[in-house]
């Protein structure tokens, strides 16, 4: 645990630093362009390259030393940060520079995340994996909660250049922690020398392994569905909240979500999760869907704050439990590929949600729930009519379908008994 704690603390500091720069660059782009589309492109460039590269990255992580993979990934992300800082100081920073830098950082992240996650099983005893994964989730929660607050203060004091310098210092700190420790060796070459395969064939082994285990495939479907819901909420929550209240209240609601994620991460770190873990995943998965369903019923800031708190409280418990099952059941030699494949397939649902959510809300659900809309005299009498009520109906419709699908998937015996049927590899 000592080595894990050192690495975890370094990554925590680095995540906070990266959050500072991401927030500050988003503000810089929006202030100079006034374009929501240009701002949204930062989110897209920060996600798509990681999805595309993940299968190959997972195969390379399994070939390489995972500690050095993390070192090189952190170094590459640090170099892109320095490049942005130099362009900014020289007065030559353009939008395409930012998109390129964010895209490159996303590629490095595709290597770093599978290496970091797969290394956990090398460093932590099997019985401590739920708590260790909870700590990983807590680091992400801290970054989500603290980075926007710190960036808002620092931008007014040291400007964008200073924020980027702070971010680079956090990269150096994370790099130092990795250089100071050693990871246990693991057998990563599972292919006999005379049967060597190409890198692409190895990359496909992650999906082959998942599709060969029906329980893991069902778990991936659940994970993908949850990511689609989260992407839809991320895309539509701001216009929904602003349809009935102020920007200040919106910030409060989002802060409640960050607080819920942090408390949920600490809770799973101390608690360790249910036994078996799949029961906890199901329970908190249903709770998360019910929270989003509640957002559609009433335009009430208190209800929204409570729903977002409980939703984000559930997220780290679900993620930590899923990662623990994978670390216990997937052989260490192919964990990089399996985690990368899960990441690519699950995260691909988020940009899909971005693309679908806006047109569904603008062209179908909002007109239906307008004051003179087709549903104003029926459903509108229950949910209300006017701006935002179409998004509310979309949330309710989406969550009714999501809950039915979730319950159906969990009734599948291969998923419900996954911890009993798949042997522990540790």
What's this entry about, in short?
Pfam families: MFS_1 (PF07690). The protein is mostly helical.
Task: Please characterize this protein's 3D structure.
It is a multi-pass membrane protein. Its main location: membrane. This is MFS transporter. It comes from Laspinema palackyanum D2a. Keywords: Cell membrane, Membrane, Transmembrane, Transmembrane helix, Transport. The protein is mainly alpha-helical and 426 residues long. The chain has two domains: 1-181, Growth Hormone, Chain: A; 201-426, MFS general substrate transporter like domains (Growth Hormone, Chain: A), CATH 1.20.1250. The chain contains 17 helices and no strands. The chain has helices at residues 2-33, 36-45, 48-63, 66-89, 95-123, 129-180, 199-211, 214-242, 247-271, 277-295, 301-329, 335-347, 349-368, 380-383, 389-410, 413-416, 418-421. Residues 188-194 have low confidence and may be disordered.
């Amino acid at each position: 645990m000592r080595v894990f704690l050192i690495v975890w603390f370094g990554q925590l500091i680095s995540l906070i630093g990266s959050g500072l720069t991401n927030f500050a660059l988003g503000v810089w782009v929006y202030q100079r362009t006034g374009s929501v589309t240009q701002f949204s492109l930062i989110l897209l460039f920060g996600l798509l390259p990681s999805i595309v590269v993940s299968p190959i990255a997972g195969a390379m992580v399994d070939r390489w030393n995972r500690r050095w993979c993390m070192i090189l990934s952190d170094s590459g992300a640090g170099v892109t940060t320095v490049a942005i800082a130099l362009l900014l100081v020289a007065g030559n920073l353009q939008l395409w520079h930012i998109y390129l830098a964010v895209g490159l950082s996303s590629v490095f992240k595709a290597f770093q995340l599978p290496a970091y996650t797969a290394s956990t099983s090398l460093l932590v005893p099997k019985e401590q994996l739920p708590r260790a994964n909870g700590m990983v989730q807590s680091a992400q929660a801290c970054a989500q909660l603290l980075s926007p607050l710190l960036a808002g203060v620092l931008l007014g004091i040291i400007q964008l250049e200073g924020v980027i310098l702070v971010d680079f210092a956090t990269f150096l700190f994370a790099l130092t922690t990795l250089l100071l420790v050693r990871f246990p060796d693991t057998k990563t070459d599972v292919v006999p020398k005379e049967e060597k395969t190409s890198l692409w064939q190895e990359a496909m082994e992650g999906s082959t392994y998942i599709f060969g285990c029906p329980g893991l495939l069902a778990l991936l479907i659940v994970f993908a569905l949850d990511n689609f819901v989260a992407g839809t909420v991320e895309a539509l929550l701001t216009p929904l909240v602003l349809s009935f209240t102020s920007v200040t209240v919106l910030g409060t609601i989002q802060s409640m979500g960050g607080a819920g994620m942090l408390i949920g991460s600490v809770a799973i770190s101390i608690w360790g999760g249910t036994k078996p873990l799949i029961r906890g995943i199901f329970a908190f998965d249903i709770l998360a869907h019910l929270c989003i369903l509640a957002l559609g019923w009433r335009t009430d800031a208190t209800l929204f704050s409570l729903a977002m708190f409980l939703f984000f409280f559930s997220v780290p418990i679900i993620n930590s439990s899923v990662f623990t099952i994978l670390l216990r059941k997937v052989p260490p030699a192919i964990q990089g590929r399996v985690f990368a494949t899960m990441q690519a397939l699950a995260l691909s649902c988020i940009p899909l949600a971005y693309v679908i959510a806006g047109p569904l809300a603008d062209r179908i659900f909002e007109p239906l729930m307008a004051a003179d809309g087709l549903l104003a005299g029926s459903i509108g009498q229950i949910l209300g009519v006017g701006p935002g009520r179409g998004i509310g109906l979309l949330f309710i419709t989406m969550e009714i379908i999501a809950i039915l699908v979730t319950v159906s998937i969990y009734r599948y015996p291969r998923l419900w008994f996954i911890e009993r049927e798949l042997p522990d590899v540790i």
